[in-house]
Design a protein that fits this description.
432 residues; Ammonium transporter fold; two-stranded antiparallel ribbon; 15 helices; disordered C terminus
């Protein structure tokens, strides 16, 4: 039998290697957001991605991890109905007195730095072509310094959602292996808030209120982003399973298989559905379905068998495809990158799927714990992120001036275009 030291060394190496793959997901999301936007805003999109990752890391370093914490660390606890309600971490700011020595909390710091960056990248897709760089950086600071760590504490830091099993007998408490809720849904609901506050792009809707197609400018970037995102998601889900769900390093193979199958089935479901509805498969929607499948996989990938992963992915692909149309047509939400559908809807479905399909000891009542988590996301996190971004907009307007949108974000905010040798099309072809 391996010694405890050898077991920990194996777990540490597996977890660290998985965490170091996560930046590929950041690259993938950045390319997807850029490819689905306009050519005259491509450099701005990539610049915003870099800035957002930097701001998110610094905000998380200053106060984010202190408020997220790790199970067993200091926390603010209130008593509600005779039960302890752990609602916020109470660690020191600036990572003071936090050893970065390969311990479990130190791995959580590294995972959190990358995870909060992924969550912050998601709203860039919904705000593409019109969200000012300064405003998106301020919004990211609030997301990474408060909204993300608050919810992450409730799920990954030993907070009240994680305690639902111990306090109320609801399965293992709220489970979120790789961040379907903590990263995807939080980021996706933030994206919905940004899309609402910004309003649609010029020319997106006719005078009759009907949406017009504004196709992404580079499908190659989008598909390359999908492939890179898969690599990052494999690391994200494996690291979350090992660190927060006590999954043995050897079971990371099962996590990886489920992750890939979920994404593959989601992408194929989207391709088939769009082919049936439109006569040809839609590449951009297929990319959204792929990402939606990845987002859904992060909920229960450590607790399901491969056949269940295929079912979860297939439903995610159909759900994302239909929700894109629903948000655009019935809610007048202009979301160029499909962030709301792929991440918010995909993530929420992944959370619910964890309650439906997760199997193993102590899972009785798990579905109810997952519903409590979904209610918290929709009933608290969405109004919170909308309200905070509304306040930000009063200080620093979110939307670029009309002239800046017409000219293109590259020239207006950066002074140079991404494709100086190309012809960048105007809005004439979508004027009504």
């Amino acid at each position: 039998m391996p010694s405890p030291v050898n077991l920990y060394a194996t777990m540490f190496l597996a977890c660290l290697a998985s965490i170091l793959l996560i930046p590929f997901a950041a690259v993938g999301l950045s390319l997807i957001n850029t490819g689905l936007g306009r050519s005259r805003s491509a450099a701005h999109s990539m610049m915003a991605s870099v800035c957002v990752l930097c701001v998110a890391a610094l905000a998380y370093f200053i106060c984010g991890f202190a408020w997220q914490g790790f199970p067993g660390s200091a926390a603010h606890v209130a008593t509600v109905g005779g039960k302890p309600w752990n609602w916020l971490g109470a660690g020191p700011l600036l990572l003071r007195h936090q050893p970065l020595d390969g311990s479990l909390p130190s791995l959580a710091v590294l995972l959190g730095l990358f995870s909060v960056g992924l969550a912050a990248l998601i709203p860039l897709g919904s705000g593409a072509d019109r969200w000012r760089l300064g405003a998106c950086c301020i919004s990211t600071a609030v997301l990474a310094g408060w909204t993300f760590p608050l919810f992450a504490h409730w799920v990954w830091g030993g907070g009240f959602l994680a305690q639902l099993g111990v306090n109320y007998g609801l399965g293992r408490g709220f489970i979120d292996t790789g961040g379907s809720a903590t990263i995807q849904a939080v980021g996706g609901l933030s994206a919905l808030s940004i899309a609402w506050l910004l309003g649609p792009r010029h020319g997106k809707y006719t005078r009759d209120g009907l949406p017009t197609a504004i196709p992404g400018h580079n499908g190659v970037l989008v598909m390359l982003g999908c492939l890179l995102a898969l690599v990052g998601w494999l690391g994200l889900n494996c690291a979350g399973a090992i660190l927060y769900n006590a999954v043995a390093p050897g079971n990371a193979v099962q996590v990886a298989v489920n992750t890939f199958l979920c994404a593959a089935s989601a992408a194929l479901a989207t391709a088939v559905l769009t082919n049936v509805r439109f006569g040809k498969p839609d590449a951009s929607l297929t990319a959204n379905g792929w990402v939606g499948g990845l987002a859904a996989s992060s909920g229960a990938c450590a607790f399901i068998v491969p056949a269940e992963a295929v079912v979860i992915g297939t439903i995610a692909g159909v759900l994302v495809t239909l929700s894109v149309e629903w948000f655009e047509l019935h809610m007048s939400v202009d979301d160029p990158g499909g962030s709301v559908s792929a991440h918010a809807m995909g993530g929420l479905w992944g959370v619910l799927a964890a309650g439906i399909f997760a199997n193993g000891a102590g899972m009785s009542g798990q579905w109810l714990a997952q519903l409590v988590g979904i209610a918290t996301l929709i009933g608290f996190v969405l109004p919170l992120t909308y309200g905070l971004n509304w306040l930000i907009g009063r200080v620093s307007p979110h939307r670029v001036a009309a002239e800046g949108e017409r000219q293109g974000m590259d020239l207006h905010e950066l002074g140079a275009g991404a494709y100086p040798e190309f012809v960048v099309h105007s809005d004439e072809f979508i004027e009504r």
